[in-house]
Backbone:
DNA sequence: AAGTCACTCAACCGCAGGACG
DNA sequence: GCGTCCTGCGGTTGAGTGACT
């Protein structure tokens, strides 16, 4: 006994929508409003599945939708949100006026994921790929240098999925946390979107390590519940800096710099991308040009590169010109 | 010019959950 | 409590298109 199909699929049209079909939906909704999509195709004179009509409306025809490309601010916000709640696209889309879950999902899959990977950041965990590999080795008991993995980003992602999912399932309700967070602000009468600052910090590190952010030096008041403290997480005045403060990935000196510099806290995704690209270029040149390197393994190369980046991070932060 | 490849994005699919009788 | 219907969601697919050879 399965669920009966929502409509007779053999008799409904599929594929791209025509202008006439769009016009029919628009005309119907303008008069009757939305509701009971299973009846709308018949009433609007469309040979389409109700589900398809709803999708067309919500993803394309809705008058409040934006059809232009994503702004850097929107991209930053998507990355921030994804780091906290993962692929809950509808929740993320609600933070972006005029964007649908489908838009956000597509943009993530086609652009943002690649950008992060290009910068050496695992788009699943939002950690440096080298750290993900290192943690995986610890988790899987392959703590020695003889551990080998395929030199592919996909393999890294696959290997870290289980840890990531476990982490998400055993910690606070990210969505509750997320939905209480004032992350996006739109100026009245302006289409300009403001977002909270973006950092390459790792919220997930708190969760993986089971440590709580100790933000006594910070004026913000976000509270993160430890996994062993239950799942209640009343959160107010969310601030991304709180994640950065105790980020074990960053050198402490870098973190202090960030705390002490409001300018640094305005680091944007685009700026980060630029610097990560520069770092990657410099690192790769060094690796290639250094004949003393034995290139023992792909993993070692990445770990070395990451160490290089970390050691240079304070300088990196100072490089930003605001 | 033609063929191939990579990318984008609209649309589809199946599942889950809520509402309701 | 159970079954049905509807809606929402996330993953996936494939047509269209541009870049490249």
Residues:
């Amino acid at each position: 006994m399965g669920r009966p199909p929502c409509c007779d699929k053999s008799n409904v049209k599929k594929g791209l929508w025509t202008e006439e079909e769009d016009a029919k939906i628009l005309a119907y909704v303008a008069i009757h409003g939305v509701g009971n999509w299973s009846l709308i195709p018949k009433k609007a004179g469309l040979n389409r599945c109700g589900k398809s009509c709803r999708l067309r409306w919500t993803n394309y025809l809705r008058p409040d939708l934006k059809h232009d490309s994503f702004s850097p601010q929107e991209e930053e916000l998507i990355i921030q949100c994804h780091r906290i709640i993962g692929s809950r696209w509808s929740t993320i889309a609600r933070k972006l006026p005029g964007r649908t879950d489908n838009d956000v999902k597509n943009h993530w899959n086609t652009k943002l994921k690649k950008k992060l990977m290009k910068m050496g950041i695992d788009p699943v965990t939002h950690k440096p790929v080298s750290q993900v590999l290192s943690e995986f080795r610890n988790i899987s008991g392959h703590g020695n240098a003889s551990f080998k993995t395929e030199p592919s980003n996909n393999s890294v992602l696959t290997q870290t999925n289980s840890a990531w999912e476990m982490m998400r399932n055993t910690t606070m309700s990210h969505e509750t946390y997320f939905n209480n967070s004032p992350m996006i602000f739109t100026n009245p009468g302006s289409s300009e979107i403001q977002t909270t600052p973006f950092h390459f910090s790792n919220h997930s590190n708190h969760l993986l390590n089971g440590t709580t952010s100790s933000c006594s030096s910070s004026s913000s008041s976000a509270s993160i519940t430890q996994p062993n403290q239950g799942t209640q997480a009343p959160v107010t005045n969310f601030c991304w800096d709180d994640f950065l403060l105790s980020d074990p990935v960053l050198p402490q000196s870098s973190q202090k710099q960030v705390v002490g510099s409001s300018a640094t806290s305005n680091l944007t995704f685009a700026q980060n991308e630029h610097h990560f690209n520069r770092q990657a270029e410099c690192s790769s040149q060094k690796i290639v040009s250094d004949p003393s390197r034995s290139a023992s393994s792909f993993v070692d190369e990445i770990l070395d590169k990451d160490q290089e980046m970390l050691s240079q991070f304070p300088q990196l932060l100072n490089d930003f010109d605001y």
User: Anything to note?
Assistant: Residues 3, 14-17, 49, 51-52, 55-56, 59-60, 102-103, 106-107, 109-111 of chain A lie near DNA strand B (CB under 10 Å from a C1'). Chain A is about 50% helix and 0% strand.
